[in-house]
Write a structure and sequence with these properties.
The protein is an alpha+beta fold and about 170 residues long. It is about 40% helix and about 15% strand. The strands form 2 sheets. It has a 3-stranded mixed β-sheet with strand order 1-3-2. It has a two-stranded antiparallel sheet with strand order 4-5. The protein is globular.
């Protein structure tokens, strides 16, 4: 079972209907950079945008998460990952498990409850050098107050991971 956000459902509907170009659907104009190359619908369908386009490496840098650019994109684990710079892309390529969010980006509190809960890439915490994403600030506060919950979520994750449907 895979939980989809309204945005994900809208993206899939638009791509399957063929009425919209993928760049019109998946690229937030506020995050697009001038000169970003246009993307074809088949490319977006084959590689879903990770972290809604935010740079995974930037979570570990001063200033927190930054939007990535299609100019600095790579494919890993069936998703397209965007970065703010070539250096960040190279760092991720050298050690993707270090920078990718834990629990496949699902909310760890949901994992503790035995559910796959989508998370907001702007609600995050670095716990023991690992990136966790949360649905909301309340869930984040709960985990930050008791970091042992992250370990329990990690222990429960192998039982939930098979429920994720493979990406197209």
């Amino acid at each position: 079972m895979m939980w989809l956000t309204r945005r994900d459902l809208w993206l899939l509907a638009a791509l399957t209907c063929g009425g919209a170009r993928a760049e019109d659907v998946s690229r937030d104009p506020a995050r697009a950079s001038p000169g970003d190359p246009p993307r074809e619908a088949s490319q977006d369908l084959a590689a879903i945008l990770a972290l809604r386009g935010y740079d995974a490496v930037s979570y570990f840098l001063p200033g927190g998460p930054r939007p990535g650019s299609a100019r600095f994109e790579l494919s890993w684990a069936g998703r397209a990952w965007r970065f703010a710079s070539a250096g960040n892309r190279a760092a991720f390529a050298a050690a993707p498990e270090t920078y990718a969010p834990r629990l496949d980006g699902h909310d760890p509190v949901g994992v503790l409850d035995g559910r796959l809960v989508d998370a907001d890439p702007l609600v995050f915490a670095l716990i023991a050098g690992r990136l966790y994403l949360f649905r909301d600030e309340g869930r984040r506060a709960r985990l930050v107050a008791d970091p042992g919950l992250a370990e329990r979520a990690e222990a429960r994750w192998p039982g939930l991971a098979p429920l994720i449907e493979p990406l197209p």
